[in-house]
Amino acid sequence: MTSAxxxxxxxxxxxxxxxxxxxxxxxxxxxxxxxxxxxRGRSSNGLRRLEPYAFISPTAILMxxxxxxxxxxxxxxxxxNNVITNHNPKFVGLDNYVDVLTDERFHTAxxxxxxxxxxxxxxxxxxxxxFAMLLNTPLLSNASKAVFRTIYFLPWLFTVAxxxxxxxxxxxxxxxxxxxxxxxxxxDNGVEFLADPSLALAAVTFINIWAGYPFFMISLLAGLQxxxxxxxxxxxxxxxxxxxxxxNVTIPQLRPIIxxxxxxxxxxxxxxxxxxxxxxGGGPINVTEMLSTFTYKLAFSxxxxxxxxxxxxxxxxxxxxxxxxxxxxxxxxx
Length: 334
Prior knowledge:
74% of the residues lie in helices and 0% in strands. It is mainly α. The termini are far apart.
């Protein structure tokens, strides 16, 4: 057999314009073209999924750089012998934790922190609730409530540095409080509130109570104003007294707010540093030494950075326990 001429074969392999247009239309209809709507939809969906990560990426990067990396470094330092001052630190395992947990100064700091924290939180709650109920009473006019709210809220407006300097001046042997005590004949030469070992812890606790109760007061006042009046009217119809209404209506309605604020205040107060450092510095004779000042002195007074890292990790673990309770309570509340 003879083969077809080359020109005829090429002509037979060519497609007519109608056939070419039909094939292009079929490809476009099937979504197989490079600029097809299906492909554009897939790419836009992929970009849309990445948008949330793009928005949170700056914050995530800052948290990683400023929080996770330092925390990881501190945890690593806690398992080494003295770092920074030692050019070749070695892994010592849990030796630093044993040394810190058996240190008498750590026990003193832990006990002082517990007393300082629990007393402050309890007083914050009681004073905040009392002042909130006073500001919520219908016996006062709106103008009087505004004035008292401003006065009661003033301590919360001051920074820790201002609070510390203010009370150091007031409690100074030549300060206003000692002047009043001497004038009234209650003291001969004044009282060293911040230098007397028997009074220093009570003095700094009082200062912290004074500076922190407005947070509870404002939050509880908002909670009181959100309680429906129908509950009190129903309790009055049932013959409940004022105390019974407070205990069976007010407290149950405020319980979620009270628990949340107490957990937050426990975390904040247990880590209080600036107020203690600027008033007593942990003295005299370690009677106001807290876990925060104990850790600071280990690092920047004794230059034992590994021991300071170990103490910081212990404080972190204690704070995380409180944080877990707070998160669980918030989830249960939601």
